[in-house]
Amino acid sequence: MSSDKKQLDLTAIRERLRTQTGRDYWRSLEELADNEEFRELMHREFPRQASEWDDQVGRRGFLKLMGASLALAGLGACTTQPLEKIIPYVRPPEPLVPGQPLFFATAMTLSGSAIGLLAESHMGRPTKIEGNPSHPASMGATDAYSQASVLSLYDPDRAQAVTERGRIRSWSAFQVALAAETDTLKTRRGQGLRILTEIVGSPTLRFQLQELMRMLPQAKWYEYEPVNWDNRQEGTRLAFGQPMNFYYRLDQAKVILSLGSDFLSSRPEGVRYAREFATRRRAQEDPSGMNRLYVAESTPSPTGSVADHKLPLKPSELEQFARALAARLAGGGSGSGDTEGKHGKWLDAVARDLEANRGQCLVVPGEFESSETQRAAHQINSALGNIGKTVEYSVATDAPSNQTAGLRELAGEISNGQVDSLIILGANPVYWAPADLKFGELIMKPRLRVHLSPYFDETSRLCHWHVPETHYLEQWSDALAFDGTASIVQPLIDPLYESRSAHEVISILQGRYRTGYDSVRDYWRRQRPADFERLWTTALNDGVIPGTGTAPPMSQMSGVAPRTERTSGQGQTDTQRDRGESAGGPERRPPGPLSATTSPAGSQQGQQVSAQQRQARPTPLVALQSQGNRKSDLEVGPTGVGPTGSTQERPAPAGSLELIFRPDPSVYDGRFANNGWLQELPKPLTKLTWDNAAFVSPRTAEKLGVVTEDVVELRYRGATVEAPVWVLPGHADDCATVHLGYGREFGGRLAVGAGFNAYRLRRSDAPWGGPGLEIRKTGERYRLATTQTHWSLESRNIVRTGTVEEYRKNPHFVHEKQHGIGPELSLYPEYDYEGNAWGMAIDLNACLGCNACVVACQAENNIPVVGKDQVTKQREMHWLRIDTYHEGNLDNPKTVHQPMLCQHCEKAPCEVVCPVAATVHSSEGLNDMIYNRCVGTRYCSNNCPYKVRRFNFLQYTDKETPVLQVMHNPDVTVRDRGVMEKCTYCVQRINSARIEAKKEDRPIRDGEVVTACQAACPTHAIVFGNINDPNSQVAKLKKLSLNYSVLDELNTQPRTTYLAALRNPNPELGTE
Amino acid sequence: MAQIFHRSFNSISKASIPIVFLLVVVGAGASYALYKSAYATRATVPLNQPVPFSHRHHVNGLGIDCRYCHTTVETAAFADIPPVETCMTCHSQIWTDSPMLEPVRESFRTGRPLEWTRVHDLPDFVFFDHSIHVNKGVGCVTCHGQVDQMPLMWQEKTLYMEWCLECHRQPERFVRPRERVFDMEWRPAEDQLSLGRRLVKEYKINRMTDCSTCHR
């Protein structure tokens, strides 16, 4: 959008929505406004000037270059292909077959919680990440972060050498310097030494640090990450009197209430939660078993977007709401009459629904909501008998202290001069410490400052020594999942640069340098001395250490195919097949951890478990279950007594707004800021790329007189930051959300210059925000690159939804919404498909819009990143996009996500217009795209009603940077400028499956070809297979009455079809 | 005002019409010849290698099977170029001081791999898989020529798409019994077409002419 855009008239939009009859979907406010500019955008395949020369070079320069390049290109074509070398091994490694990928189990940690992964390695180069089916947090799926982590490994901006005050030094020089330091520290018993780490998810590193603290008792170790779980811990402490770990069993929950939690897409275990949630979400067969999700939240999230009922509440209201609900259901706490009045009907309905489903309901507190909100949720869960059923608690024996308080303590010590040497492992406190701690100034005080981090960032710049940190695909380590399942992190590749892991740096302080491999092995040998070597190989092979973890396996998890029809192995998901489990019938889950009286490790393995091991793993909690059911035990102290983080405690300045901090859905806390895949990933709901913004509700925007892209001054408790506004329908009123992780000053070419730094507003006493925000319009405008308005299919009944009730009454309701005529006669020839006919079914009911598929597609298919400027010109290259449609009023719309990719039409409009036959129909019904034939007329794209074709306007693929060359998937062509491209249904995977099947002289089995998006999807929303085989999952799904084709009135007969989304609203609340 | 063009220009311009036509024809012919030439296709041109390895000597003279070195030809896309270790299985015992083999020994000593020049180099947008061809009865000789007669390795065929399609369109013209795939001297005992038709049926060979079979 241009900067002189006419301001959107929200009042008019509201009026139009109010007078609208029937269900209608909209994607953006611009679309609703339906102004001149938007209409023009719709009428063009690409926005105006998208195809014009837009470099700094003028017309004359262009002509000169064109002339020269034409002449040279003509001559260049006369040369033959340059000679290539083949370089075989001298002594080949044993399991390696050249050209054949290998998969290794490893794990990635985010904020201390691990997700188990399988890394695909081509000739020793990790190129793609898949989920590990045997890992409880992954279940074979992944999130966007783990998919994008490959790019972080090959990031050319990573720190590449050890430096001392900016000068390159050798690792051994650092080792000598640190060892000398260690000697003097020993004599002082560690006095003056402070170590700051991120949340330590590795049991080995935790053990190493604890050992070090024992060796140097005067030293101190602080753990801090800006996205930490302080509130979560404080909430359990308030509710139960001691910090507890807990996780949910969403497959057991029929009614779920989220109090500001984005549990389906945040944190690594969100992948599991999403899978569990989806099993109860599929209603095609048995609508009565469908779960119901209520979400009360301030900032719209993917979880909120799939809710049956949503209530936007600002954080303080949310807390009041939680208290009122707790008062109602658990009898404790004091309800606020105000909330009762305002949202009384909602609260009543939710409370009744929860109560009617005792033991089968769940209240999920937001991780970043106040500890009071969390306490209320625990109280309700306990009062309704959900403990042990839908939520499992265990005592956090090794509970870290409050991290924010810890960081504040460290800051105090530094300013008092108590800190002589500061060693920072992984963390970036100068950038992400709360602004009131002034870490940027404090850090200059200690005499010796050492920093270990993957990038030379804001903190590295102010430290004496900087040591590049290894990527998780380059290092030996271990990691714990949400339920305590331990995994070994094994390297896929030697460190690309002179980088080291935290294990290695700590070992020097311990007195003797040891490799990460030795440290990790030693730690686990100490835990399990008897069968260590067997354990080690098993752990490396499976990706989980047997005997750790408490989460039950999810044997009946998949639920992709209609469950009742699944009688043979045909209907199994690959996940199950990999696990060797039968899908014959629903298996009963093994006894939950709460009924086990000893730790699973002890009971299953008969091994002795040492103290450290027990600390590393949450111990199943036996006693508290019975206690939990007694209300009195849960009521700890009167409500309203000063828990930190409670928004009620501070008197709110009258009339001001509330500020909300959230980790960014793309760059998290800033650690992925230099990852182009994540930066360009359209964020859920807003589809914003390359930037963050201050999100406000339409009503608040009207009140402030601002529109999207207006620059405002955010003033919060003395700090001021300028930020562009984003008007987000569904956001709570009178508050603004800012995402962390942007506004970097150092740390890579992509990181620097994107967005604004929200940490500048952050305070250590209110890390997730609070009241007191002022927003002032500056009058400036800032261009945001959003893909929300791109590739719009316009309003043509593209997404179809209904309620369970509608479905029960009329299973064919979806097809009654059809526009015009159905598939009729066609002039184009019919094809016969003798063998396979590939097709895809996407369940809109299961899609959360989490973006894992988008990044998976990008990684699998070598899709380039184009940059912010090109995104504003609608030139993003994602083959798979997620269209978000809203329905209903601006203040609380309903949302549906629709993954949109090449539909592989039977009568493909693109095929008939290509003058060079670069896009043709294959004998298996694929719409093939042949890059080497394409001359770039873009006719096909112009004729595609689904707008899924992407054109390389410029040379987006970096062919110069050597380290990026090794990242590419060698099975997919790397495209150059001037070529059209699009989803191929992962034809490389089809081909390799076909070759394997043919060699074994058998047909391709159902589930043998798994597309990249399908493999990544946490909810199994995407199913791919042979529609000629009536027993395939995809064929069964396509037979369901909910199945429909997008734009079926065009008679393109797409191979990709969608299952309509079903909602399960509470009849008491109606459909609102 | 005098005429700009002399009268003789009439004849010149008339003559130039067939000349231009001729030039176009000759140019097209020359381009086609160049396109087909060994210069462009690199077919039949022996390439320099770090060690002048002779397939004639090793295959014809010593009778070593293709798969002794090209180990993964039946299982993987890439047929594999043997590691130096494979050379040294014999050459640590025989010809141990041949100067010709010094690069091999040096590589084995130092661990620095030999850099062979690629003889059969398909464009990067073509994805070829040896294993499926071998499994469907396409003999080595069919594409690589009689390697056992090549003192230095060269590319026998053009490797142009039209050449690939000859077989992909009519596999019966080229397929042979699976057990004869590695046979350098095999000739069909009967009519190739009738044998081919039988084998196509028996091996369930499809005409794989979809673009995405090779391009993706």
Reported by name, the CATH topology of the largest domain in chain A is Rossmann fold
Biggest interface and its residues per chain? A-B, 40 and 44 residues
- CATH second-level architecture of the largest domain in chain A: 3-Layer(aba) Sandwich
**N-to-C CA distance of chain A:** 33 Å
Strand content of chain B: under 5%
State the helix count of chain B. 11
Write a concise keyword list for the protein shown above.
heterodimer, A: alpha/beta, Alpha-Beta Plaits, Rossmann fold, Dimethylsulfoxide Reductase, domain 2, 4 domains, 7-stranded mixed sheet, 6-stranded mixed sheet, 37 helices, 41 strands, B: 216 residues, mainly alpha, 44% helix, extended
Task: Outline the fold blueprint.
The complex is a heterodimer of chains A (1072) and B (216).
Chain A: H1 10-19, E1 25-26, H2 29-33, H3 36-43, H4 59-76, E2 85-86, E3 102-110, E4 113-122, E5 125-131, H5 144-153, E6 162-164, E7 167-169, H6 171-187, E8 193-197, H7 203-215, E9 220-223, H8 230-240, E10 244-248, E11 255-259, H9 270-279, E12 292-297, H10 302-305, E13 309-312, H11 315-330, H12 337-342, H13 344-356, E14 361-365, H14 371-383, E15 391-395, H15 403-415, E16 421-425, H16 429-432, H17 439-442, E17 448-453, H18 458-461, E18 465-468, E19 477-480, E20 486-489, H19 502-509, H20 516-527, H21 532-542, H22 574-579, H23 600-605, H24 611-616, E21 619-620, H25 623-629, H26 631-634, E22 657-662, H27 676-679, E23 688-689, E24 694-696, H28 698-704, E25 710-716, E26 719-727, E27 735-739, E28 771-781, E29 785-786, E30 801-803, H29 804-809, E31 838-843, H30 852-860, H31 868-872, E32 881-887, E33 894-900, H32 909-913, E34 919-921, E35 927-929, H33 939-942, E36 950-951, H34 962-965, E37 980-981, H35 987-999, H36 1012-1016, E38 1022-1026, H37 1033-1039, E39 1043-1044, E40 1056-1059, E41 1061-1063
Parallel strand pairs in A: 8-9, 8-16, 11-12, 11-14, 12-13, 16-17, 17-18, 22-27, 24-26, 30-41, 31-40
Antiparallel strand pairs in A: 1-32, 3-4, 4-5, 6-7, 6-18, 10-15, 15-21, 19-20, 22-28, 23-29, 25-26, 25-28, 31-38, 32-33, 34-35, 36-37, 39-40
Helix pairs in contact in A: 5-30, 7-19, 7-20, 8-14, 11-14
Chain B: H1 8-36, H2 38-41, H3 55-61, H4 66-69, H5 84-91, H6 102-110, E1 116-117, H7 130-135, H8 140-144, H9 161-169, H10 192-202, H11 211-214
Helix pairs in contact in B: 5-6
